[in-house]
Design brief:
419 residues, alpha+beta, Cytochrome Bc1 Complex, Chain A, domain 1, 2 domains, 5-stranded mixed beta sheet, 16 helices, globular
Length: 419
């Protein structure tokens, strides 16, 4: 059981404090409720751009990393479709340094053309390296475009095209910051060797005077049910052919989420999973095969990705995958198989909770979802899933009309990509 206390500042900042006296360190994690889904369709990639811009310094702290490193700390950040998360890990006695730095950049970022130009170039270069110059790197562009027609999940976190970032103006950037980087749109978690009263006093000292922002009203268009198989064949420079199947699934807060997550594990999580055992190990049709979910706040995707071995066509590979999906839908799975998957999930949860940083990140995310107590309930929610419920989810989700398929037909790699 992970214990925590919470309070909310008058400006709307939600704060959770988790005490763990076994650690000499403390984590300061701040999660902003802004991701790629909050972007304009003609200005994508901004949430990810801000992950970089927020380290560009303020008047009080021109180099964000330097004071933290002098305090013996480290930091990092990540962005996805729904959130942007920043974390700092410092020795417990230097907690105030991290709180000062985070409060400073919550209210005092003033962007210049020079700062923006530096980060634009960094992000555009990352786009080129990971999406344009890497085999299969653009797969999320294609899957999202096929699976989503109206919801902003139809573009990946890095953005639709690099021009959306390279052409970003100072006005665009400042407006994005002013709207989303506000205390009432964030969750702060302090976790580790910390006393609640001391943490509360320091948070109030550094954050209480920050003005609240305007209330953000999200009116995101719900994605209508997919009624027709979507398919795209790509001829690309890649080492082998590849197949990606994406199926619409319920949202992260839906009661069926846990059954769908277990379904993905049954199919493709590790060497003991069905697709790995039957198609890779026994029939030797694939060099790799995996299944996972996007885990997005709004309805997301279950993805199967696989690379056929030489001599096996994409058509043969596809037929083998669909054969296994149909078998699961028809026959379900036994008690032993389900128990094995549940045990693996539970051990993964327990292992992740051994790390104070992971606990802080999870507490922040679950609070964004509206229920931080999920951190203590998830194992029980997975345990409640029955074999019948999992089979029902498979029958509902794993159907062609709910699927978007992307195929890479490999062409010879250029020497620079083959090396």
């Amino acid at each position: 059981m992970i214990q925590y206390k919470r309070f909310t500042l008058d400006n709307g900042l939600r704060v959770l404090v988790h005490e763990d006296q076994s650690s000499p360190m403390v984590t300061v994690n701040i999660c902003y409720y802004v991701g790629a889904r909050d972007e304009s369709p003609d200005r994508t990639g901004f949430a990810h751009l801000f992950e970089h811009l927020m380290f560009s310094g303020t008047q009080a702290a021109p180099n964000f990393d330097e004071p933290l490193q002098m305090a013996g700390g480290e930091n990092n950040a990540f962005t996805n479709n729904d959130i942007t998360n920043y974390y700092n890990v410092v020795p417990a006695e230097n907690l105030e340094v991290a709180l000062w730095l985070e409060s400073d950049r919550m209210q005092n970022m003033r962007f210049t053309e020079k700062k923006l130009d530096i980060q634009r170039k960094v992000v555009v270069e990352e786009f080129k390296e990971t999406c344009l110059n890497e085999p299969y790197g653009d797969v999320w562009h294609h899957l999202a475009d096929l699976a989503y027609k109206v919801h902003p999940y139809r573009w990946p976190t890095i953005g639709k095209v690099p021009e959306h970032v390279s052409e970003a103006s100072l006005t665009d950037v400042q407006a994005f910051y002013n709207r989303f980087y506000q205390p009432n749109n964030a969750v702060l978690v302090v976790a580790g060797q910390v006393d609640f009263d001391n943490a509360k006093a320091l948070v109030e000292k550094w954050f209480a005077e920050i003005p609240t922002g305007a209330v953000i009203e999200r009116i995101l268009p719900p994605e209508p049910p997919q009624r027709l198989l979507q398919k795209r064949i790509l001829h690309a420079q890649a080492p082998t052919d590849a197949i990606y199947l994406a199926f619409h699934i319920p949202s992260r807060v839906d009661r069926d989420f846990y059954a769908v997550d277990l379904l993905s594990d049954v199919l493709g999580n590790g060497p003991s999973s069905r697709l790995y055992q039957r198609l890779l190990k026994e029939r030797e049709l694939f060099s790799s095969i995996d299944c996972y979910i996007s885990g997005t706040i709004d309805p997301g995707l279950l993805i199967i990705e696989a690379k056929p071995v030489a001599g096996v066509s994409n058509q043969e590979a596809r037929a083998a995958i669909w054969e296994e999906l149909q078998l699961l839908k028809n026959e379900g799975l036994g008690t032993r198989e389900l128990e094995k998957v549940k045990n693996k999930v539970e051990s993964t949860l327990i292992f992740s909770e051994l790390n104070v940083l992971n606990r802080a990140i999870n507490l922040a995310f679950f609070e964004i979802l509206g229920n931080a107590e999920l951190i203590n309930q998830e194992a029980k929610l997975y345990r409640r899933v029955s074999a019948a419920q999992l089979q029902q989810m498979a029958q509902w989700i794993l159907v062609e009309e709910n699927c978007s398929e992307v195929y890479y037909e490999a062409e010879e790699l250029e020497p620079s990509l083959a090396s």
